[in-house]
Design a protein that fits this description.
This protein is α+β, with helices and mostly antiparallel strands. The protein folds into two domains: 117 residues; 109 residues, no CATH class. The chain is 33% helix and 23% strand. The protein is built from six helices and nine strands. Strands 1, 2, 3, 4, 5 and 6 form a six-stranded antiparallel sheet that branches. Strands 7-8-9 form a three-stranded antiparallel sheet, with no helix packed on it. A hairpin with a 2-residue loop joins strand 2 and strand 3. Helix 4 packs parallel to helix 5, helix 4 packs antiparallel against helix 6 and helix 5 runs antiparallel to helix 6. The longest helix is centred in the C-terminal third of the chain and has 20 residues. The N terminus is likely disordered.
C-alpha cells in the first residue's frame, strides 16, 4: 500500500508498530470499543501518551460509561489502557467520574484489575473480564457510601492532606523537601466545603492531578554549595503516573475507613 504520510491516532490504528515480534497479535482499540459497546459501555473520554518515537502506536486510555452504572450523580467507569508498540498489555479496571469537578478517579488496589496480553484476543475473554469487574461494583458503592458518611476532624483533614501530597512529592526523595501545606487542600467550589472523607479525598485528588503543590528543597549548585530552591508540581499527564497516584490516593482514603 502506498504510504500517504498520514499518521493514524492510536485509537484508529490498524497495525502494530514495526518493532514488535512475530508473536505479537495486534488488537485494535476500536475493536475493543465495539465489543464493549455491545455490552452497553460507551467511550466517554480519551487520552494518549505524548510520544514522538511511537506516535500513532503509543500507550493510550479510554474511559467508558454505562447508563445503568452510577453512584448517585457520578458515573462508574471501565478504564481501558492499550498500546500498539509491544510494551503495553490491554488493561481494564474500575473508575469513577465525579460530575461536580469533571474529574476521573481509579479504584484502589483492593479492587481487581485485569490484563490481556497481545498474544491473542477474544471477545469472550473481554466479556469474562467485564463480568468480573462488575461483580465488584456493589463493593465499590459500599466503600464510596461509607466514605461519604465518614466525617473527618480538622486534624484528620490536615493529616490526610499531608500524606496525599507526599504521594505526589515522593516522601522517599533523597532531597530534603519542605512542602507548603497551604497548597495541599484547596476546595474550589461550594460542593467541596463538606469535610466528609469522600469530598476531602476528591478535592485532594483533583488538586494533585492538576498540580500546583509548592515546595522548597535542598540542592547542590555548580559550586558544590547546598542551596534552597523552590518548586511546584505539574499537572499529571503521564498515564502510568496518573493510574498509580490515583490508586495510592484511593487506598490512602480507605485507610481512614478502616481506622474509624
Amino acid at each position: 500500500m502506498e504510504n500517504t504520510g498520514v499518521v493514524l491516532s492510536p485509537f484508529e490504528q490498524t497495525n502494530a508498530h514495526q518493532r514488535v515480534s512475530n508473536k505479537y497479535a495486534f488488537v485494535s482499540t476500536q475493536q475493543i470499543i465495539n465489543d464493549l459497546g455491545d455490552l452497553g459501555w460507551l467511550p466517554d473520554k480519551t487520552s494518549a501518551v505524548n510520544s514522538r518515537k511511537y506516535r500513532g502506536f503509543q500507550k493510550h486510555m479510554v474511559r467508558f460509561v454505562h447508563p445503568d452504572f452510577k453512584i448517585g450523580d457520578d458515573d462508574i467507569e471501565l478504564v481501558l489502557i492499550n498500546g500498539h508498540h509491544g510494551m503495553t498489555a490491554i488493561k481494564l479496571m474500575l473508575g469513577i467520574f465525579r460530575s461536580i469537578c469533571l474529574n476521573g478517579l481509579v479504584a484502589g488496589e483492593q479492587f481487581e484489575s485485569y490484563r490481556i496480553v497481545h498474544t491473542g484476543y477474544a471477545k469472550e475473554k473481554l466479556n469474562e473480564i467485564v463480568a468480573k469487574l462488575l461483580s465488584q461494583v456493589d463493593n465499590l458503592k459500599t466503600v464510596v457510601t461509607s466514605m461519604k458518611s465518614r466525617q473527618l476532624t480538622e486534624s484528620e483533614v490536615k493529616e490526610f492532606s499531608v500524606k496525599a501530597a507526599f504521594i505526589r512529592l515522593d516522601a522517599n526523595d533523597p532531597r530534603n523537601i519542605l512542602a507548603d501545606e497551604s497548597t495541599f487542600y484547596r476546595p474550589q467550589r461550594t460542593e467541596d466545603l463538606p469535610t466528609d472523607l469522600w469530598t476531602v479525598f476528591n478535592v485532594l485528588q483533583e488538586g494533585i492531578m492538576k498540580g500546583g503543590i509548592k515546595y522548597t528543597y535542598e540542592a547542590i549548585n555548580k559550586k558544590e554549595e547546598t542551596v534552597t530552591r523552590k518548586g511546584s508540581t505539574r499537572k499529571i499527564r503521564n498515564i502510568d503516573t496518573a493510574i498509580d497516584v490515583n490508586k495510592q490516593l484511593f487506598d490512602l482514603a480507605n485507610e481512614y475507613l478502616v481506622a474509624a
